[in-house]
């Protein structure tokens, strides 16, 4: 199935129909509004900010994200040390992938709320093991947003957000 509108609604309601008990987001870019909205879900969520590995993060974005995560025990936010520009939205049940959407939509307000600009497509079940391997690598190559090792982009550097 291909989705090109109402992406935010799809992502934030899909757990109800697929009976998942965890939601994982892998996105090149993230913004505070969608991360904060994860608090509305009834399941734990893990978010990977992918382009940290290439562009680091601005102090302002980092501070906003750390505040959100610090006030929510069910959100874990990690920064990928490898440059990751993929967009994967993954639902788990008892540690196993049961549903996944992949495509071009970043976990940002524009990425999720711009009809026709971005797409997400259902990943076939035959690819779940490869996606799980991808996630395992990402987990070992990431650091928690609260880590003292986080480094920041200088204020005059502007990220290339495609």
Walk me through this protein's architecture:
This protein is α+β, with helices and mostly antiparallel strands. Helix content is 31%, strand content 24%. It is built from six helices and eight strands; from the N terminus they run E-H-E-H-E-H-H-E-E-E-H-E-H-E. The protein has helices spanning 7-18, 32-37, 52-55, 59-70, 109-112, 128-140, and strands at 2-3, 22-27, 45-49, 75-80, 88-93, 96-103, 120-122, 142-144. An eight-stranded mixed β-sheet has the order 1-7-6-5-2-3-4-8, with helices on both faces. The chain is globular, with a radius of gyration of 15 Å.
- Describe the strand arrangement of the main beta sheet, using strand numbers: 1-7-6-5-2-3-4-8
Order of helices and strands: EHEHEHHEEEHEHE
Count of separate DSSP helical elements = 6
Contiguous uncertain segments of 5+ residues = none
Distance between the termini: 24 Å
Rough outline: globular
Largest sheet, in brief, is: 8 strands, mixed
Helix content: 25-40%
What is the mean predicted local confidence, pLDDT? 95
Rounded to an integer in angstroms, the radius of gyration calculated over CA atoms is: 15 Å
Count of beta strands: 8
Beta-strand proportion: 15-25%
Structural class: alpha+beta
What does the oligomeric state look like here? Answer: single chain
């Amino acid at each position: 199935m291909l989705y090109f509108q109402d992406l935010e609604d799809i992502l934030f309601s899909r757990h109800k129909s697929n009976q998942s008990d965890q939601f994982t987001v892998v996105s090149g870019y993230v913004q505070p509004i969608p991360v904060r909205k994860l608090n509305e879900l009834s399941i734990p969520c893990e978010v990977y900010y992918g382009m940290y590995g290439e562009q680091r993060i601005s102090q302002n974005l980092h501070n906003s994200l750390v505040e959100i995560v610090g006030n929510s025990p069910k959100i874990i936010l990690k920064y990928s040390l490898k440059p990751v520009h993929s967009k994967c939205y993954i639902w788990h049940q008892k540690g196993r992938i049961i549903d996944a959407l992949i495509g071009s939509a970043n976990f940002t307000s524009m990425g999720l709320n711009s009809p026709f600009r971005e797409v997400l497509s259902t990943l076939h079940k035959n690819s779940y093991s490869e996606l799980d391997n991808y996630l395992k690598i990402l987990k070992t190559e990431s650091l928690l947003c609260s880590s003292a090792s986080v480094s920041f982009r200088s204020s005059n550097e502007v990220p290339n957000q495609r």
